[in-house]
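Sanity check

After download, print the first record. It should look like this:
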Amino acid sequence: MAAVTFCIAVPQTERLDRFLADQLALSRTVAARLIADKRVTTAGRPLRASVQLERGALVSVELPPPDEPPPRSYAPAHRDLTFVYEDAHLAVLDKPAGLVVHPGPGHWDDTLVNVLVGRGTALSQGWAEGAGRGGQGGRPGIVHRLDRDTSGLLLVAKTDEAHRRLARLIERRQVTRVYAAVAWGHVAKSPVTIEAPIMRHPKDRKRMTVLAGGRHAVTHAVVVARWAQTDLLRVALGTGRTHQIRVHLAYVGHPIVGDRDYAFGGSRRVTPSERRAAERLEARAPRQLLHAALLSFPHPVTQQQVVLRSEWPADLLPALAEAAADPSLLAQRNPLQYLGFFASDE
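Expected structure tokens:
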């Protein structure tokens, strides 16, 4: 095992995981994994990912040999999951809100990957980090992602071949991912295509933003229902950037109700005469009102078209009924179907 030792020359570093990734040309995931494995020390003491080091600190990093394969073991976790489709090649689950998809800083042992390992689900392993355009190092089985507080349909590959084929289908726009979103205000033109580059926020690394030089991103939105302060939108991804729908809708002035990171004023944006009703709606939103409701793709092995739907989740139902000013929605078993959300798929 090789060791690298260096002395801090700046007055103070940023967080160690970011600093280490920058200094050693590593990904943030790899840098965080080295820190979690206690391979980054000063004076023999392991360092935390969040520590900020001062000038003169001597840091030692133990690097694995170049031919050492990346870690393939993940601590098993246990949680009830709902699967809507499963065979020997892939699985589609209805991800609950609050569940991080893959291991990373702060969530090494409690993610969806850990739960799948605890369940005994086979997961693709063959795509090392940086291998091809869809490289998924450290994300076994994960073909695409959902934010922690976004619920809905998520596709998981069980074999390397299925993973490669599914990634190609996504690149070719043959995988349809449709979301239900309740957004503030009224979209002036429907349908609307939002095309704006997205990159990590230069001052807040946990957030994304629209900025020149970012990655090309396209979102398509259609108004399904128009209510007093909000619209129910059917949103389809043209690309799959981090936080894309949330960032794009906020960028065009219609942030998602309940979104704490991209609220841009939230209920305060609503005209004063409607403000109290908007505040009631906001109070009933435990998280962003965004749900991955439809997933459609040709099966990577059989080529048969797979079409799967997920209804509006129970924890967001009070907010939906408040937005629509329709208490009868609380008794609806299939509120999205009742509102005509899936009509264009029938």
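If your output differs, re-run the checksum step. Summary of this record's structure: The chain has three domains: 2-63, 71-172, 175-346.
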